[in-house]
Write a structure and sequence with these properties.
By secondary structure, the protein is α+β, with helices and mostly antiparallel strands. It contains two helices and four strands. The strands form two sheets. Strands 1-2 form a two-stranded antiparallel ribbon. Bound molecules: zinc ion (ZN).
Length: 70
């Protein structure tokens, strides 16, 4: 009887812990993967390197700013 209770408690703790880990994982993954996902692109006008999310993409070319886009 006591052993079964212990197993159930251990199982519940393990389930709770794995759920807690699952809830925390997406945040950690985002923090870890965002810097590596941030590809650096070179401006086709001045060759300055800028993060992909800040770059202006037009006609398959990369621009660092609106001034270089024109
Ligand atoms: Zn530029």
């Amino acid at each position: 009887m006591g052993i079964i209770k212990l197993i159930i408690i251990a199982l519940l703790v393990w389930i709770g812990f794995s759920l807690f880990k699952k809830l925390r994982k997406p945040k950690q993954n985002l923090e870890q993967s965002s810097p590596s996902n941030n590809k650096m692109l070179a401006c086709s006008v001045c060759d300055v390197r800028i993060p992909e999310n800040e770059a202006i993409l037009q006609d398959g070319k990369v621009y660092c700013s609106k001034e270089h886009l024109e």
